[in-house]
């Protein structure tokens, strides 16, 4: 499989949009069920792990101009954590917040934003934290954006009901994770005298399409044989 290259722009917001577009266009083979896949963009450069489907091919980040600026007691620059984009696992429309660390492994004490272990919904989330440096002699405030990306299908297929029946409720399917990748949606007829034809379940597949026959509720009545007299 060819490895896509995410374009890097001087404007970090453009780089972020390129990343989201690359994720949405990714082939099914690029994703697997389990823990989130993550990337960490630096201020003007995108750094992607070597084993990621999206490997950044560009200049190395090794100058003081490439690190985030820390604001604190005598700290002019420090390796604050970079902005982070995380792909939600299959069958989930959220992720569990991971523990954020600086580039040298120093843990970030989060004072605003989601904490480690918290469920984090789709979209960008600002995080502000404090780094304690130099054996506790110095500290720095760091600010980053934690973005959760959810791959989605379109709206689930509607449940068809007999023509002429009005005022029916409960025709929308119940989905375990909305329209998120891997979500399963269950259908049932809104009245007991209607019969479901088709699949009771549809699934948002790896190709971000719904799989399963669109169900239909027909106006056929359930027929039961009367008990025979002895």
UniProtKB/TrEMBL annotation:
The lineage of its organism: Eukaryota, Metazoa, Ecdysozoa, Arthropoda, Hexapoda. The keyword Disulfide bond applies. This is Uncharacterized protein LOC117639450. It holds the Pfam family Sushi. It comes from the Eukaryota. It comes from Thrips palmi. Keywords: Disulfide bond, Sushi. The keyword Zinc does not apply. Residues 151-219 form the Sushi domain. SUPFAM superfamilies: Complement control module/SCR domain.
